[in-house]
Amino acid sequence: MTSQLFAVCIGTSRPLRLARFWSGLLGWETADDPGAGVTLLPCDDTGFRIRCLPSEEPRTGQNRMHFDLTSTSLDDQRQTVAKALDLGAQHIDIGQSPEEGHVVLADPDGNEFCVIQPGNRFLAECGFIGALACDGSQEVGYFWSAALGWPLVWDQNEETAIRSPHGGPKITWGGPPLMPKPGRNRLHFDIAPPANGDREAEIDRLISLGATRADTSQDDADGIPMTDPDGNEFCVLTPR
């Protein structure tokens, strides 16, 4: 058995406000989080939670990961954009051209996300959260495929994508060139080791796949901090 993707974590100085935004947009319920933040619980086949966790890490540039939300029609896309703006999002320019059909927004903390136009065949079988779109190498796509046991559903021109065998969003990596990483990522994965498994053995397996264990002085009650082959932080959770 492999680890499971437990949550996508977003560091924020305002966990409650950010959780209210994403809860309102996605229609997910919220719950108290053991990390003193707020957890959003999926009501569909997404398969992972969203954790809004307290953090004073400054924003250091564009995130390496963002949500792509799907649309069933142009009217549906417009309604999603309008709802997001009403909840506190704003339009942003990250270099997209007017001809591109997706709408680029930022949540109240400045985290980018896209509302994809209808008819996108790549996300046709996915739900409202169609993808976690990541800046990353082909190597890191292979790493996460092996780490989570999710098959590759795209592997062309150094672009990769994986998806859980149970459905839900795809996770995609766009290949080179990679954007600079001046500091810690504001978004990261929490993964849960196999139930009734040996966490240290799982950490050793992840290291054999290309992960690096962070300074052990950073270990805390929440889990073991690690980085993937591209240097992105993730956490192997402490069994609860």
From TrEMBL:
Region of interest: Disordered: 211-232
Domain Glyoxalase-like: 8-116, 132-237
Entry protein name: VOC family protein
InterPro entries linked to this entry: Glyas_Bleomycin-R_OHBP_Dase, Glyoxalase_6
SUPFAM superfamilies for this protein: Glyoxalase/Bleomycin resistance protein/Dihydroxybiphenyl dioxygenase
PANTHER family assigned: CONSERVED PROTEIN (PTHR35908:SF1), HYPOTHETICAL FUSION PROTEIN (PTHR35908)
